[in-house]
């Protein structure tokens, strides 16, 4: 069992930055591929970025490529999402997720494959 807790959301102006954190507990952190998803009102939850258990491989949605950076600190069992050049369309609840049992360099983009989810943190970008 893995418990995930997001933090770092808030209100920011367009062009600004935020860093989200996802603190994990319960199992060996490096055994889990992880990802960030977001859900805007009345929209489906969508993939944002993912990182392998080893932290060596990352993957981004086209909409955030070049603006967001995913990373993980295995010693602190925490994953991060650095969000720069934020746009109003980035407004959503952001969720972190984890899935185990994969080779260390694997990233996962499909939300249906994730086993564990955090409760979400709200990010609001004003224009």
Architecture overview:
The chain is mainly beta. It has strands at about 5, 10-15, 20-25, 30-40, 45-50, 60, 70-75, 80-85, 90-100, 115, 120-125. β5 (about 45-50) and β6 (about 60) form a beta hairpin. The mean pLDDT is about 95.
Q: Main sheet, how many strands, which sense, barrel?
A: 7 strands, mixed
Range of helix content: under 10%
Low-confidence stretches: none
Which class do the helix and strand fractions yield? mainly beta
Number of beta-strand segments: 11
* Secondary structure tally, helices: 0
Secondary-structure map with pairings?
Blueprint: E1 3-7, E2 10-13, E3 18-25, E4 32-39, E5 46-51, E6 58-60, E7 68-73, E8 78-83, E9 92-100, E10 116-117, E11 121-126
Parallel strand pairs: 2-11
Antiparallel strand pairs: 1-3, 3-8, 4-5, 4-9, 5-6, 7-8, 9-10, 9-11
Notable characteristics:
127 residues; mainly beta; 7-stranded mixed beta sheet
Summed up, what is this model?
Strand 7 and strand 8 form a beta hairpin. With 127 residues, the protein is mostly beta strands. The protein has strands at residues 3-7, 10-13, 18-25, 32-39, 46-51, 58-60, 68-73, 78-83, 92-100, 116-117, 121-126.
